[in-house]
Amino acid sequence: MLIQFSVKNFKSIGEKKVFSMAVADKKSTQRFSRESGNNFASPLLTTACIFGPNGGGKTSLINAMDFFKDFVVDSARTQKEEEIQGVIPFKLDTILSTQPSEFEAIFVVDGTLYQYGFSVDSERVHGEWLFMRSTLKGAKLIPVFQREFNGAEYAWDLKNVKGQKTTWSKNTKPNTLFLSEAMRGNAESESLAKPFAWIQKSLRILESPQRLSSGFTAGNFKQGKWREKILNLLGATDTKITDIEVIEKKVIPSDIPKFVLEEVPKEFLDDLFNGKLLSMDVFSSHLNTLGNTVKFSFEKEESDGIQVLFNIAGPWFDVLENGYTLVVDELHNSLHPHALQFLVNLFYDETINTKNAQLIFTSHETSVMNKGFMHRDQIWFMCRNDAQQSELYSLAEFKNERAISSFQKSYLSGRFGALPKIGVFHGER
Which of 263, 289, 318 is where one domain is finished? Predict the structure, then answer.
């Protein structure tokens, strides 16, 4: 489970900002939280939402999590060029714009707390560190490894690393991470393998639900996995769909534009021309006025909202089934507020969320702020200050908020900030 994520000097985020899933009010958050399994980090929230105006920094935070994951997973495998792609410092400050960006996550895997992070610019990794702490009584935070660039070379502390640490450190390039290189070298040490596996498999980033294709959900539905759950989800959100049919068909090479074929891997082309590449057509069933079944082409005849709901269903149940941490930008897009609330509620249900899955999402849909549906510990805000840096703060920081009956009304009235400043439109300048 994720405890907190912090980022410094990345896109609209200048000074270090910390997002936390730790509860501030233990007595009032039992429905919204779970024990982490580590005595130093429990309990943790199952869901949290970040509100704010367009350009406030919400997407920058999601992008930071996405970069953090991708760089850990891929840096040793794909980083061949000297320049590191994707690192964008805060450009509106003359000092920060020349400094490295910093990323760190603290999380729990099988009862052990891990703290892993790195600082990096477009040229090199400037620092990298991993600490761990077991849940045993009296346990201390132990440095697994540390690496720091002093301007001329790297200073290393690898005394708690098991395995071929000398080889891994020598193979670690300035533009790659030691953790990535160690795992490329098949490190079997739990202190390295477990945090890497959590970042690679359990941290799921979805930058937009609308970018999801139907493939994952349709493929699992075709095989019978989550079939009833998906149909129940569509039924519970009042889509009027009575059934779904998925039909596989071979992809015809002539249907794919030539410029696409020129860019795809050879393995893809081999499968395509050997008839092994399949696509799936999805059809939904509705009842007409006589009670007879009528089929609709899902892609052509169903609404954007229903398509998003179906496309997200498979990944949603995958996260809940495996106890992953899912991060979604603008989850409200194309979804009715009731559908949004239904999806969030699944993370509260202990009979469905049996492995402590977590959901973090950004939204403009303030209906989820209704008291009783989300606790103030779960509500965060992002907006830009006068220096154009993104600020990140929690509703829990407003100590007198207990007396306010409606979070939603208070937010829209400007009580917590993080609202767009709408000016007067004057036409042409």
Answer: 318
